[in-house]
Write a structure and sequence with these properties.
The strands form four sheets. The protein has a nine-stranded mixed beta sheet with strand order 1-6-5-4-7-3-2-8-9, with helices on one face. It has a six-stranded mixed beta sheet with strand order 16-15-18-17-20-19, sandwiched between helices. It has a five-stranded mixed beta sheet with strand order 10-11-14-12-13, with helices on both faces. The longest helix has 25 residues. It is 39% helix and 20% strand. It has 21 helices and 23 strands. Strand 5 and strand 6 form a beta hairpin. The relative contact order is 0.06. It has 653 residues and is α+β, with helices and mostly antiparallel strands. The structure holds adenosine-5'-diphosphate (ADP). The site of adenosine-5'-diphosphate has 15 residues, from helix 2 and helix 3.
C-alpha cells in the first residue's frame, strides 16, 4: 500500500497547537507519558498471552528501551508491547475519541483565554493526554509499529503540521518505536533547559516519574575506561576505551511486598504517583496483608482529589491484579462495589490464576471473597476516620461523599444492605450553621423528644433554603432541618426512607406531622377555616386549572403569604428539576398551593372573591399567588412577561 496522507481531526489539531504553543512548564513529562503508554502496551500483550501464548512469538522478556542520540538530535522509545495495526494507528493516534481529552482541550482553551501560558503539570497531570505531549519537545515524530500476531508493520509520521502519513514498514519484533526529532533547545543548546539526549538527564527523569513501572526501562550508557591488566590494575599510559553498558533505570520494586514498617511515607507516595500517574500524594493509604484460607496483599489509595470524570460513563474504575507479583490485569471492576469507584490500587494474590480471562475472573470465588474483605476494610477505615479524625473525614466527604450517596441511592438495585453499610457515613449540612456537617446520628441525638421525624429541605444553597417560607414554622419551633444541597441527596434520602426508626420528611411535602400541643391547635384551626373557605379554595383551584393538584390553607406558614408543596407521593420539586436536566421531564411533582390564612393577602382574596370567581381581579390574584409560590421555589413561571405586566398593572392601581 502506498504512503497516504491524512488530516488530523480538528480537535486534535487544536490540541497539538496548544501543546506546542502554550505549555511552557514541565515539558519533561512527555517522557513519563510515552513510557506509561509503552508499559500499558506491554500489559496488553501480556494479558493476551495468558490465554494465547503464541502472541509473544517466543519473546517474553518485556522491556522498554530508550535511545538518545545527540548527533541526530533524536530520542526514541521502544517497547515490545502489543503494537498497533494501520486502523489502530488512525483510531488511536489520529483522533481524539476520549471525553477526557476533549475536557482537557476545553479547560486548556479556557485557561489560555485567562492567561497566556498554561501550567502543563497541572493540566496534563489531571487529564493525562499522553502521546501528544511528545510534540511539546519534538517537531517531528515517527512511529514504527507492528501489532503482535500480525506480519505487516506500519510507519506513522507527523510534523505536527495538521497532517500525518502512514505507510508500510518493516519491523522484526512486535511492538512500537516512537522516534522524536527534538527541538534544538532540548538538545543542550540552551542553558537551563533539559537536554533529552543526555543519558543522565533521562535516567534522572525515569527515576523521578517512572521508577515503579513494572517492566525494565533500559538505556545504553557509553563509558570510557582505562584498560586493566590481568590482575585488574589500570595499565599506565594506555588509552581509554569506550564501553557500552545497558542499564535498567527503574527499580520496579513491588513495594507492597515489603513490610509495612519498612516503608516510608514518601515511598508509598512515589509508588502511587508512578503507578497511577498522579501528581499529588494520596489522601489515604490502606496496605493489608491477609493470610488464612485466602491469601492476598492489597495496597489501596484514595486519591487526594476526585478525578474530573469520576461520574462520566467513560470513567474506568478498578484495581490492578497481580498473582505472586506478576501483573495480570488493570482496572478490574469486579472487586469493589460501584460506590467505591474512586479507590485506586492493587491486589496481589497467589489464589488468582494467571491463566484467566476477564469473563472467568468475574465468576471467580476468590475474587468475590477478596472483594468483600476489601470493601469491609475500606468501610472500617472510613468509620475510623469519621470517629477519630473528623477533619480528614470531612475532606474525604467533600471529594467522595457524592459517591457514597449514589451508593445509597443505588441500594434500590444492590439491596438494603448497602444502606446499612453507608448510612452512618453520611454527612449533611443542617439549618444550624454552627454545627457544620452532621451525621444522621448526630442529628437525631440533638432532636428534642417531641420531634418524631427527621426533617429535610432541598435547595441549591443554604441561603435559598433559609428563605423558604416552609422553614418559618420549623425555625420558630427550633427544629433543626437537614439541608440537601446536592442533586443526589434527595434521591439518597428517599432510598434511606428512615434512620433508626425515624422517618425522613421533606418540609415541602404533605403534612409536617408536628404534634406538639400548639401545632395540634393550629392544625385544628386551619381545618376549621378550610371548611369555612371551601368554596374559595375550590374556586382558586378551578381558576388555576391543571397547574395545581390542590389548593389548601397552610399551617406551616408564619409570615409568607403562600408556598408550594409537593404531594406526599411522587417526586419532589428538586427531583423534578434533576429529571428535567437529565431530559426526563415527564417526572413532575404534584404541586399543592398552600395559602397562609393569617396573611393580610388572604383577607383581600376573600373580599375579591365576594364578587364571584369570574371577575378579572380574582383571576389575576390567583395567577399571581401561584407565580409567587413558583418563584420562591426557584422555578420560572410559564409566561414571565405576562406576569410582570400584571404586577405592573396592580402596582399602578
Ligand atoms: P492514553 O494512553 O491515555 O489512552 P494516548 O494519547 O497516550 O492516550 O494514546 C492513545 C492510544 O494510542 C492509547 O490508548 C493506545 O491505544 C495507543 N498507543 C499509544 N502508545 C502506544 C504504544 N507504545 N503501543 C501501543 N499502543 C499505543
Amino acid at each position: 500500500m502506498a504512503k497516504q496522507t491524512y488530516e488530523f481531526q480538528a480537535e486534535t489539531k487544536q490540541l497539538l497547537d496548544l501543546m506546542i504553543h502554550s505549555i511552557y512548564t514541565n515539558r519533561e513529562i512527555f517522557l513519563r507519558e510515552l513510557i506509561s503508554n509503552a508499559s500499558d502496551a506491554i500489559d496488553k500483550v501480556h494479558f493476551e498471552s495468558l490465554t494465547n501464548k503464541e502472541i509473544l512469538e517466543g519473546d517474553d522478556s518485556y522491556e522498554i528501551f530508550l535511545v538518545p542520540d545527540a548527533n541526530t538530535k533524536t530520542l526514541s522509545i521502544s517497547d515490545n508491547g502489543i503494537g498497533m495495526n494501520r486502523e489502530e494507528l488512525i483510531e488511536n493516534i489520529g483522533t481524539i475519541a476520549k471525553s477526557g481529552t476533549k475536557a482537557f482541550l476545553e479547560k486548556m482553551l479556557k485557561a489560555k483565554e485567562e492567561s497566556d501560558s498554561v501550567s502543563g503539570k497541572e493540566l496534563i497531570g489531571q487529564f493525562g493526554v499522553g502521546f501528544y505531549s511528545a510534540f511539546m519537545v519534538a517537531d517531528k515524530i515517527t512511529i514504527i509499529t507492528r501489532k503482535a500476531g500480525e506480519k505487516q508493520a506500519w510507519k506513522w509520521e507527523s510534523a505536527a503540521d495538521g497532517s500525518y502519513t502512514i505507510e508500510e514498514a518493516e519491523k522484526e519484533k512486535r511492538g512500537t518505536t516512537i522516534s522524536m526529532t527534538l527541538l534544538p533547545e532540548f538538545c543542550g543548546d540552551k542553558d537551563g533547559v533539559e537536554n533529552f539526549t543526555d543519558t543522565y538527564t533521562l535516567s534522572h527523569l525515569v527515576k523521578k516519574y517512572s521508577d515503579y513501572v513494572r517492566y525494565p526501562i533500559k538505556m545504553n550508557f557509553e563509558t570510557e575506561e582505562v584498560p586493566t591488566d590481568k590482575d585488574g590494575k589500570p595499565i599506565e599510559g594506555a588509552e581509554k576505551v569506550k564501553k557500552n553498558e545497558i542499564r535498567t533505570l527503574n527499580s520496579m520494586q513491588p513495594l507492597w511486598t515489603k513490610n509495612k514498617s519498612e516503608i516510608k511515607p514518601e515511598e508509598y507516595n512515589e509508588f502511587y504517583q508512578d503507578l497511577f500517574h498522579e501528581y499529588e500524594a494520596p489522601m489515604e493509604i490502606l496496605h493489608n496483608k491477609v493470610e488464612g484460607t485466602i491469601e492476598y496483599t492489597s495496597l489501596l489509595f484514595f486519591p487526594a482529589h476526585a478525578p474530573f470524570d469520576l461520574y462520566h460513563t467513560n470513567y474506568e474504575p478498578g484495581l490492578q491484579l497481580y498473582s505472586r507479583h506478576v501483573f495480570i490485569m488493570d482496572k478490574c471492576k469486579d472487586l469493589l462495589p460501584e460506590y467505591l469507584r474512586f479507590v485506586k490500587g492493587l491486589v496481589d494474590s497467589p489464589d488468582f490464576s494467571l491463566n484467566i480471562s476477564r469473563e472467568l475472573l468475574q465468576q471467580s470465588r476468590e475474587l468475590k471473597t477478596i472483594g468483600k474483605k476489601l470493601e469491609s476494610s475500606i468501610l472500617k477505615t472510613l468509620e475510623r476516620l469519621m470517629k477519630n479524625d473528623r477533619e480528614k473525614y470531612e475532606k474525604f466527604w467533600a471529594e467522595y461523599g457524592k459517591s457514597l450517596k449514589i451508593g445509597v441511592y443505588g441500594s434500590m438495585y444492590t439491596g438494603r444492605e448497602t444502606i446499612d453499610k453507608l448510612k452512618n457515613l453520611l454527612l449533611f449540612s443542617t439549618s444550624d450553621a454552627q454545627k457544620g456537617l452532621s451525621s444522621l446520628k448526630e442529628y437525631i441525638d440533638r432532636m428534642p423528644e417531641s420531634q418524631k421525624k427527621i426533617y429535610y429541605a432541598s435547595g441549591k444553597d443554604r441561603q435559598s433554603i433559609d428563605s423558604l417560607p416552609q422553614m418559618e414554622i420549623l425555625r420558630e419551633k427550633g427544629i433543626e432541618v437537614l439541608y440537601l444541597l446536592d442533586n443526589v441527596d434527595e434521591f439518597a434520602i428517599e432510598a434511606l426512607h428512615e434512620y433508626e426508626g425515624k422517618q425522613f420528611h421533606s418540609i415541602s411535602r404533605g403534612d409536617l406531622g408536628l404534634d406538639d400541643v400548639e401545632s395540634q391547635q393550629v392544625k385544628k384551626e386551619t381545618e376549621d377555616m378550610s371548611k369555612k373557605n371551601e368554596t374559595l379554595l375550590k374556586d382558586i383551584k378551578e381558576t388555576l386549572g391543571d397547574k395545581v393538584a390542590d389548593v389548601k390553607l397552610s399551617n406551616r406558614l408564619k409570615n409568607s403569604a403562600v408556598c408550594l408543596v409537593a404531594d406526599e407521593q411522587g417526586p419532589s420539586f428538586a427531583m423534578e428539576q434533576v429529571f428535567a436536566e437529565a431530559n426526563n421531564p415527564m417526572f413532575k411533582a404534584k404541586r399543592i398551593l398552600e395559602i397562609n390564612p393569617h396573611h393580610k393577602l388572604f383577607e383581600r382574596l376573600q373580599n375579591i372573591h365576594l364578587d364571584g370567581k369570574d371577575n378579572a381581579a380574582f383571576k389575576d390574584y390567583c395567577d399571581l399567588l401561584y407565580t409567587q409560590a413558583l418563584l420562591i421555589e426557584g422555578m420560572v413561571p410559564d409566561n414571565p412577561a405576562a406576569m410582570a405586566n400584571k404586577i405592573a398593572e396592580l402596582m399602578a392601581q
